[in-house]
Amino acid sequence: MLGGVRIQKVQSDSSKSKGVSIKNQFAYVIGLQLHSNEDYVAPDMKLLKVKTNQYNARNYVNATLENTKPTIMHNLNVNAKVNTKGTKDKVMTVKKNDMSMAPNSNFDFPISANGKALKAGKYTLDLTATAEKGRYHWHFTKDFVITDKQASKLNKSAVDVKQGPNYFVWIIVAIIIVLILLGIIIYLNQKNQKNRRRH
Q1: Which of 2, 35, 142, 198 has the smallest CB count inside 10 Å?
Q2: Against a cut of 0.85, is the pTM above it?
Q3: Sheet containing 105-112: order of strands
Q4: Does residue 16 sit in the same domain as residue 74?
């Protein structure tokens, strides 16, 4: 079990003053870990799932990692990369060091797209993790898919993704211009033919 003791000085009534004033209060928390016995418990990590997500309007691929044992995972280092499936083409990569993980817990490890637009396709997550100064080591690979719908939705709402030109709108405008020009040419041609018949 994890918990803590919070220590704070008690303010006496005599310290209160009239009017508006700002008083700082300080507190200190001592973390505690309670064991039911002295047997050592080794940490164990699992990769639960991989999915796309968005934080603060920025695109990420999340790897959900789980510490399945009732022990704190210290000195956690994670090195993750996302490749196009079947290739060594790196699409995203991230490395985080000196983290900790609570007992029997899981969290989403984010891999940033770094402002690049997500592309629909099949990908492979390759993730390596170490804990307790390299004493424990895990390696995971997992395939996942980004659909057209997911990529389009996330890219549209991402603030750091440069939106490309809307070619569909330009194509419609070009077709309208061509139709107008054709209409003018046909009109002028018919007008010329009528003038010739009159002469």
Answers
A1: 198
A2: no
A3: 45-55, 58-67, 105-112
A4: no
Tell me which residue of 121, 64, 120, 124 sits closest to 92, measured CA to CA.
124
Q: Are residues 106 and 19 in the same domain?
A: no
In a domain, 22, yes or no: yes
How far does Cα 104 stand from its chain's mean position?
Answer: 23
User: Quick one: three-class SS letters along 135-196?
Assistant: CEEEEEEEEEEECHHHHHHHHHHCCCCCCCCCHHHHHHHHHHHHHHHHHHHHHHHHHHHHHH
CB-CB contact of 80 with 94 (8 Å): yes
Do residues 86 and 110 share a domain? Answer: yes
Amino acid at 1: M
Q: How far apart are CA 54 and CA 59, in angstroms?
A: 5
Domain that holds residue 6: 2-33
Quote the CA–CA distance of 4 and 31 in Å, as a whole number. 4
Percent of the chain at pLDDT above 70?
92
Condensed to tens digits (0 to 9), the pLDDT of residues 30-56 reads 988 888 888 888 999 999 999 999 988
* Residue whose C-alpha is closest to residue 5's, from 24, 33, 25: 33
Compare 180 and 20 and report the one with higher pLDDT. 180
